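Quick check before the chapter quiz. The format below is the same one you will see on the exam, so make sure you can read both the input and the output lines.
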Amino acid sequence: MTTPPSAFPDVEKLVVDVLKADPALAGATIAVSPPAGFDGTQSAVLVNRRGGAWIGDQHVDMPLIEFEVYGPSKTAAHTLANAARRALLATIGKQVGANVFHDVEEQDGPRWLPDYLYRGANRYLCVIRLSLTVF
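Here is the expected output.
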């Protein structure tokens, strides 16, 4: 049995890079935290790791990735959420950098959820589980 790494790989950066490379997401902010001046009405996909598991003997990371997706309208936020989901789901079986995406499975989403921090926000949440080999 192998032990888990002292730190998980930076899967948030990996997912941000995947989303930024997709032309359907051009014009949206793709980041792990909101940019300066963000008020929830801009087009944005915020990527966060929400847990997951390390399978040591297979050297596989299985993180849960949450998208907080914002737009200037509810319809725009929903369209952007679907584009982000599609981009990440398209990585199944692909190598990105030093990681291979073995599986990408939607756990929840897109789900409308009002944002109490940004009162004018149109926000959808999605949760996707990844299974990737870590080299």
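If your answer matched, good. The chain has a mean pLDDT of 91.
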